[in-house]
C-alpha cells in the first residue's frame, strides 16, 4: 500500500518566529500546519488530530527534543519525525536519527530546503519500532553482500538499516578498499529509492573541469567539445541515489554546486541559464581527512556539515582480523563459481598468514589475493605457499628497539648508534640461534646460511665466542653431497 504523503505537519519549537516562518512555507505548499511551543502536550495533540510529520526543534529546553522523539517513536510509530537542527548544529543531528527521526532541517530556515525535506518525507515510509535493528538482532554474518561479524561491522549494518530508509545524506569514511561503495549501495537498496537509479562517480578519476560537466551536464557550445546538450549525473539519478566517491577531490566550484544541489535540489548545466529540480539522495565517501581539509581551506565547511548528517566509519581490515576467515570463505566460493574451479578450503598455515598480514589495501586486497591463490592452487586446500610471498614476509614479527635503548643512546652520532643497535641485534639473534642448535657452531652456521668461519668471526666480534652460548661442539660434518668428498666439503671441525 503506498504511503500517505505528508498532509499535516506539527512544528514544535520554542521560537515563535521559527514557528511562523515554517507555517507560512508549509501552508504555501498546501499542507496543514499545527504548532507547539514545548514538548508537553504534543502527544495529546497527535492523539486528537492525524499528524503525518512532527518537526522537532533541537533547542527545546533540557534536551527534551530527544525525549520527545523517543516518546513519539515508542507511542506513535506511524508518525514520521524530523529534527529542526539548532543553528550551526546540523552535524549533531545523529542522536535524533537514533531516536527514529528520518530527516533534519537546518536553521536558519531556508524555504527551498524546507520544501525539499517535505518532498523527501512524502516518500519516507513511516517509522515502525520493528524497523530499527537493535543490538543483538541481525545475527546473520552478512548484510546486503557485506560480510562481517565483528561488533564494528554489526554496528555498520545496524546503522545502514536505520538510516537507509530515510532520505538523509550520509558520509561514508574509511581507507581504500574497506567497502565504502558497498555501503552506499546497501543504503540505496534499503531505501524506497531502490527501484530508481543508483549512479556513482569517482570524483578523483576526472579533471575538475570535467567533473562539473559530468555532474551537472552542459549546454551545447559551453566549452570546446560540447557539441550537444547533455544532462549530468544529478539528472540521471533523479528519484534515486548519487554516490560521490572521493568527494575530497572535488574542486571549489563543483563543491559550491554540489552544496546547492544538496540543499535545494536545484541543478544547472554548465553554460545553462535555467535550473532544474531534481530529487536525489546524495551519499558521499572519502578516505581523506575532510575536517583537516576544512581547516586548510581546501574543503567547504558548510558542505561537510551537509554531507555528514550521518557519518559512517568503516574499520580497516587489520582492526577486524577475526572477520578474515569468513571473508576468505565468501571470496573462495565466489571465485570458484566465477572461474569454474573446484572449491578449495583454506589451510591452517594460509589462514595464519592471512590473519597476521597488515592488509593496507583492506578487503579489496584480500579479495585479489584469494582470487590469485584459488587460480594457482593445485593442492587439496589453499596453503601458505599459494599466497604471494610478500604476505608472509611482511607478517614476520618486526624487530623493535626498546625505549630504554633509544633513550640511552639518544645523543650518539647516528653511525655509532646504529652500530650499537646492530651489535645488540647480532648478540640476541646469534645467542638464540646457538641455543636452538645446542651450541653447535657447524649446525648453527648451516641453519643461518653462513659459512662456519664467518659465523665464528661474527661471534668473536660480538664477544660471544667464549660466552655461555658459544661453546663449540665437535660433530661429524654432514656431507653436502654424496660421492667423493673433499677436505673442503668436510671441513675439519675443531
Ligand atoms: N564487508 C565486505 N564483504 C564482502 N566484500 C567486501 C566487503 N568490503 C569490501 N568488499 C569488497 O572489496 C572490494 C572493495 O570494496 P569497495 O569498492 O566498496 O571499497 P571502497 O572503500 O569504496 O574503495 P575505494 O576507496 O578504493 O573506492 C569490492 O570488491 C567489495 O565487494
From TrEMBL:
Q: Does the keyword Membrane apply?
A: no
| Alphabetical GO biological process terms | phosphorelay signal transduction system; regulation of DNA-templated transcription
Q: Cite the record's Polar residues compositional bias ranges.
A: 131-141
Q: Which InterPro entries match?
A: AAA+_ATPase (IPR003593), AAA_lid_NorR (IPR058031), CheY-like_superfamily (IPR011006), Homeodomain-like_sf (IPR009057), HTH_Fis (IPR002197), P-loop_NTPase (IPR027417), Sig_transdc_resp-reg_receiver (IPR001789), Sigma_54_int (IPR002078)
Which residue stretches belong to region Disordered? 122-143, 467-494
Q: Which PROSITE patterns match?
A: RESPONSE_REGULATORY, SIGMA54_INTERACT_1, SIGMA54_INTERACT_2, SIGMA54_INTERACT_3, SIGMA54_INTERACT_4
Q: Which residues form the Sigma-54 factor interaction domain?
A: 146-375
Please list the residue ranges annotated as the Response regulatory domain.
8-122
Q: According to the UniProt record, list the residues that bear 4-aspartylphosphate.
A: 57
The entry lists its GO molecular-function terms as: ATP binding; sequence-specific DNA binding
- Keywords on record: ATP-binding, DNA-binding, Nucleotide-binding, Phosphoprotein, Transcription, Transcription regulation
Protein's UniProt name: Fis family transcriptional regulator
Q: What is the lineage of its organism?
A: Bacteria, Pseudomonadati, Gemmatimonadota, Gemmatimonadia, Gemmatimonadales
